[in-house]
Amino acid sequence: MLRLHQGRWALLATAFFTSFCFSQNINLCSACHGADGNSITFGVPSIAGQPKLFIENQLVLFREGMRESDQMLAAMKGLKDPEIIKLAEHFSKLPAKAAPGTVQRDLFYKGQQLAMKNRCGICHLADFSGQQQVPRLAGQREEYLLAEMKAYRDNKRKGGDTIMAASLYGITDEEISALAHFLSRRVRKPVPR
Asked: Which end of the chain is flanked by fewer CB atoms within 10 Å, N or C?
């Protein structure tokens, strides 16, 4: 009987510790990416509503040093795969909010035309919500999209997708600005002309 009670206490203690560690990890992520996964910090991406597999892959890339970020490397150091999976599941289920800022209609429509011309919706889906290992672009922070697209185009993004580098090859800074503006302001309702 004593062993049975010891086993229960050990199980409860493990469950409590695991829950505590998960809460600590959530708090660590939320410090930069926002309490609800929607970033309010310049240059820091929103992770709410990102596809689960995409988040898992990115966290592993950071943990293994295959993507560069001192903050993310420190945050991911020592994190085990089951913890990464739980974090990815948590943030993928949170609702994504629209990026802050106003719509500049001409820039928005230019970006929309470029997204259609370059067939961004094939991989990122027609509403740019992302899928599997492909990120959600809709509502992402504009300055983050701008920096990442330039890094892809200029082949400076460590751990990046070669398809994205090829897709953005030859796209000008002005066009990338329009794409970033459109995608960051992309909402389900059409923007009036």
From this structure: N
